Amino acid sequence: MAGTLTLSGCAGFLVPAGEGEPGPSPSRTASTGVHVSPPSPLAIASPPAVRPGESVRPSPTPSAAGGCPDSGLVVDMGPVEAALGHRAVGLTLTNCGGKPVRVDGYPSVQALDENGDALPVKVNPGSSYMGQDKGPEEVMLAPGKTMRSLLAWVSTPTGGDLIEGDALEIAPAPGLEARTFPLEGSDVRMLDEFSMTGWRTPTPG
After folding, report:
1. How far apart are CA 27 and CA 10, in angstroms?
2. C-alpha gyration radius of the chain
3. Looking at residues 190-194, what average pLDDT do you find?
4. 178 close to 171: Cβ distance less than 8 angstroms
């Protein structure tokens, strides 16, 4: 019977197939619990669509580079797209390890200030102006395969004052290894709150 690491909150769970509980260093954002269950059949569906943006910025360079994390999963962030005060980035989750990994949930996202400290920017799983959330897709992600998520925010005040962020700390799920991506440009750094879609497999072609 395969071991399954269940993560609290909306993050779902990720665990190498056929192994027990993995040992990544817990993040400051979540606690974890363990639940054992066998793999189940998967239903593959299309990912949420992204609206064409007004402008596209170069992809940011993550603060940490190197080999594959212990979890076997690594996150990358694409260029920022803009539309009518809204901003969005595509997130890609890749199985960089040698074994299938069960994925079912949402990314973990934290805005950081210039000192690398966490900012009080709310993160909401769900749809936004920039894309529809169809919910997370449960997948045994094979080595080298990817899943996608969309992270969106508003750079004009809708519910209060904006917060200026310097970077985004993004992980496959709370408790797993995160990477830090800088935010460049005043029109991108101003944050209201985040909306994010669940991890889903991309549509072929």
Report:
1. 15
2. 16
3. 88
4. yes
